[in-house]
Amino acid sequence: QVQPVESGGGLVQAGGSLRLSCAASGRTLRIYNMGWFRQAPGKEREFVTGSTWNGGSTYADSVKGRFTISRSNVKNTVYLQMNRLKPEDTAVYYCVATAIGNNWYSGSWGQGTQVTVSS
User: Fold this and answer.
1) pLDDT by residue (tens digit) across 80-101?
2) Which of 36, 52, 53, 67 is geometrically suited to a Cys-Cys bond with 63, CB 3.0 to 4.6 A?
3) What is the enclosing helix (H) or strand (E) of 64?
4) What's the DSSP call for residue 107?
């Protein structure tokens, strides 16, 4: 079973950039769909972006054009490049790995990394 571990969160000013990493141990990410979710205080966890095992990707409307998901099969790591950050992007960001054909919520979740965007 793959175990994701996130890193790269921090404090950034509005308009700035951050890159989150999700390193996976246990198995290769090539056979998993990978996703990023986030949860702001007092809100439900929400989908941010997903990358399918065969190269597809989807984005929430709120981040489209600003965030980019990518993978490195060599490093067995998934990245989330976040540009033009806004205060409303402030949240704990979670990485999830799920087997082909399964939904996100049945996948393996990381512990999360805090992203704080100041205005």
Assistant:
1) 999 999 999 999 999 999 999 9
2) 67
3) none
4) S
